[in-house]
Amino acid sequence: MGTLLFNLFAIFTVVTAVGVIVCRNTVNGAMCLLLSLVGVAGLFVGLHAYLLAFLLLLVYAGAIVALFLFIIMLLDTKGQDRPRLSGIPVAARVLAVALIGAGVASFIARGRLNSPDLATVPDVGSNLKLYAYQLFTTYLLPVQVLGFLLLIAMLGVIVLSKRFEGMEDVK
Amino acid sequence: MTLEEVRLAAADNLWSAIAPELILASLALVLLVLEMVLPKRHHGLIPDIASAGILGTLLGLFLNWHPVTLGTETFSGLLQHSVTGQVMRAFFLLAALFTCLLARITLARQPMPRVEFYHVLLVVTAAMMLLVQANHFLMLFVALETLTIGLYILVSYLRTTTASLEAGLKYLVMGALSSGLLLFGIVLLYGVTGNPALPLHSGNAMHYEELGLFLTGNPDNFLASLGIVLVLAGVAFKIGAFPFQVWVPDVYQGAPTPVTAFLAVASKGAGFAVLLALCGPQGPFTPYAWLVMPILTAMAGATILFGNIAALTQHNVKRLIGLSGVAHAGFLLLGVVAAAGSPMAVGAVYFYLFAYLLASFAVFGVMAHVAGTDDAGQELDHYAGLSRQSPFLATVLAVGLGSLAGIPPLAGFMGKLFVFIAAFQAGARWLLLIAAAGVVVSIYYYFGWIKAAFFDAWTPPAETTAPAKPAGTPVGWVAGLSLGTLALASIVLGFYQGPLGQWLMLW
Q1: B221 FRET partner, CA 20 to 30 A, in B175, B191, B436, B463?
Q2: Where are the domains of chain B?
Q3: pLDDT tens digits in sequence order for chain B, 507 residues long
Q4: Which of B174, B166, B167 lies closest to B148 in space, CA to CA?
Q5: Tell me, which fold does domain A1-78 have in CATH?
Q6: C-alpha span between B351 and B384 (Å, rounded)
Q7: Hey, are the CB atoms on B111 and A164 less than 8 Å from each other?
Q8: Would the CB atoms of A167 and B111 count as touching at under 8 Å?
Q9: B10 touches chain A (CB under 8 A)
Q10: Nearest chain A Cα distance for residue B20, angstroms
Q11: Measured between alpha carbons, how far is residue B334 from residues B209, B237, B360 in Å?
Q12: Is A119 touching B (CB cutoff 8 A)?
C-alpha cells in the first residue's frame, strides 16, 4: 500500500513538474506547479512528516503560488511562440541536461547512505507539538526578532510606495 | 522533549541580558505610537526622543558595563555575552546616535516622512547588537537579515530621487545574493556536522562551539570547506572586500548621506565582528586556518590595492569615501589575518573601528552640512573656499580626513599602527608592504580633498556653465558640539588610549 501510494505521488509530482516547463500558458504552468507541490506534500505524508506536508500546502501551495498567479494575471502575459534557439540558451540547456545527468549518475552510483538507527534520531520538527515547544522556548528570541523584521519590512513598503503630496503632508 | 526540558529551556531565556536591545526595540515602537498620538506640530520632537533614547541606552550600557551575564551563554546558547560584545554594543549605539544627528540635517531638506527612518534605524541597531553577540548560526542569520532588510529601506529612503532608488535596487540584488551564499554555506556546514557517519557529529550543529569541535575532528572535509568558503564570501559582501566590492560606489553615492555613514561604519563593524567571531582565535573556523588564512590574506591585499587605486580618480565625495571605505576594510582584514599569530590583533581591529567611526562621522557631518538638496551629487568642487566660509567645518574636515589617512598624532594613525604591529608580530610581511603602499596612495586623495577645502583653485575668469555650489546648511549648536567632540576625540585618542585600550586588551 505504502509503495503504491509512493509511486502514485512520485509519478504525479514528476508529470506535473514537467508540465510547469512545457505549458505555453503561464497560468497553466503555475497551476501545474501547485499540483506538483501537492504531490510533494503527499510524499511527505508517506514519510510521516505531517507538519512539513501541512506547511508545504499552507505556505507554498496556498500563499506563494497564489502570489504567482496574481502577478501573472497582473502582467497579463500571453503564451508566445518559442524563441529561436541560439548561443547562450543552447549552452544553458546543454549544461542543465548535463547537470541532471550527473545528478542521476551520482544517485545511482552512491545513492545508498548508511542510515543511522532511526530510533536514536530525535524527531524534532516532524511533530507539531515538539516543533512548537522548540519555537517558543529555545528559539523564542529569533522568533521575536523576526517579528521586528516583518514590521520594518511592512513599514518600508508603505514609506517607499505611498504618495506624499508636498511637505505639509509629512510634517 | 519532556515538559521539564521545555521548562529548563524557557528558564534560559534571560531577557535582562539583552536589556539594551529591548530598550531600543521598545523605543522604536514608542516612536510609531507617538506619531499617531502627538499633534502634527510636535512631530519635530520625535527625532529628539530617538536620539535621547539612544544616548540613554548608551549611558545605561556604560553604567552596567559588567553585567552578571558577562562571559556566559544565554538563550540556550544562541547568544554569548563577552567584553568585545559590550564594546561593539557601544560602537553601534554611537554610530546610531551620530546617524540620527546627520539625519536631522539631511532629511530636513527632503519631502519625506521622518519617523519611519528613526524607527528602522533603531531596529537595525538592535539587530546589529544581537548579531555581534550571536553564538549560533540561526541567531546570526536572523539578526543579519533584519539589519539587511532595514538597510534596503534606508538606502532607498529618498525614493523621489533616481540615484537613491538605483542604489536601493543594487543593494537589494547584491544583498540577496550575499545572503543566499551565506545561507548555502551555513546549510552545508549544518548538514555535514549533523552527519552521524562522521566522528564528533553533533545534533546542535549551528552552535559555534559544537561546530568548532566537529571541525577539529574532521580537519579536511570537503563539504565543510565549501561551506566555510561560502560563509566567508557572504560576510565579505557585507564588509565590501574585494572581489565583492562592486556594489560599494553606487550604493554609497545614491544612499542618503546619514545612511551612507551608517553603512560605512556600523555595517562594516558588524561584518568584522562576525568575521572575528568565526575566524578569530576562539572561532569555530580555527581548525580550517589552512583554508581561511590564505583566502583572507589574498582578500586583504587585493582590497587595500583596489580601494586605494579606485579612489584616486573620484570627484564625487560619496564615491570617494565609499572606495576609501573599501581600502579601510582591507586594513581591517589585515588585522583579522594577524589575529592567528598576534594576541593584540583582535583589540587592534576594534580600536581601528572606533578610530574609523570618529573620523568618518566627522567627515560625513561636514558633508551633510555642505550638501544641497541633490544628495547624490556632492562633488569635490563644492568644497572650494570652505575654509573661508566656515573655518569650523573646514577644521573638522581636515581632522577627520587626516585621521582616515592615518596622519600622526590622530586616532587613525594609532589604529593603523596597532594593526601593523599586530601584522608584524604575526609575520605577514608581504601584506604589510602592500598596506604601507596603500597608505601612501590614500594620502593623495585625502589631501586632495583637504586641498579643495583650504586652498583656492584657479578659476577661469569668464564664468562658464559650471554647476553652482549648493547653499549648504548652517551649523546648529547640537551639530557643532557633536562635530567638535568627534574631532577632539580623534585628536585625544591619538595621544591617549586609556581605558579603551585596556578593554580591548591592547596591552
Answers
A1: B175
A2: 3-458+472-503
A3: 677 777 777 788 888 889 999 999 999 999 999 988 988 888 888 889 999 999 999 999 999 888 888 888 888 889 999 888 898 999 999 999 999 999 988 888 777 788 889 999 999 999 999 999 999 999 999 999 999 999 999 999 888 888 888 999 999 999 999 999 999 999 999 999 988 788 888 888 889 988 999 998 888 888 899 999 999 999 999 898 888 888 999 999 999 999 999 999 999 999 999 999 998 888 899 889 899 999 999 999 999 999 999 998 888 899 999 999 999 999 999 999 998 888 888 889 999 999 999 999 999 999 988 887 777 788 888 888 788 888 899 999 999 999 999 888 899 999 999 999 999 988 888 899 999 999 999 999 999 888 888 887 666 555 544 556 677 777 888 888 888 998 898 888 888 877 777 766 665
A4: B174
A5: Four Helix Bundle (Hemerythrin (Met), subunit A) (1.20.120)
A6: 33
A7: yes
A8: yes
A9: yes
A10: 14
A11: 25, 17, 20
A12: no
Domain boundaries along the sequence of chain A = 1-78, 123-162
Q: Are A153 and B149 an interchain contact pair (Cβ–Cβ within 8 Å)?
A: yes
DSSP state letter for B216: H
Q: Pick the closest to residue B78 from B119, B116, B133, B7 (CA basis).
A: B133
Using a CB-CB cut-off of 8 Å, the residues of chain B touching A114 are: 197
Q: Which among A117, A124, A149, A169 is the top mutation candidate for probing chain B, defined by the most B β-carbons within 10 Å of its own β-carbon?
A: A149
ipTM: 0.89
Contact A159 B113 (CB under 8 A): yes
Q: Give the integer Cα–Cα distance in Å for A6 and A8.
A: 5
Name the one residue in this structure whose C-alpha cell is 573556523: B285
Q: CB contact, 8 Å: B147 with chain A? A: no
CA dihedral B335, B340, B342, B346 (to 10 degrees): 50
- Which chain A residues are within 8 Å of B75, Cβ to Cβ? 138, 140-141
Q: What count of CB pairs under 8 Å joins A to B?
A: 99
B39 close contact with A: CB closer than 8 A? no
What does the alpha-carbon distance between residue B108 and residue B40 come to, in Å, rounded to a whole number? 16
Alpha carbon of residue A111 to chain centroid: 24
From A133, A137, A139, residue closest to B138, measured CB to CB: A139
B36 touches chain A (CB under 8 A): no
DSSP class of residue B113? -
Q: Is B150 on the interface with A (CB under 8 A)?
A: yes
Tell me the shortest Cα–Cα distance from B356 to chain A, in angstroms.
Answer: 28
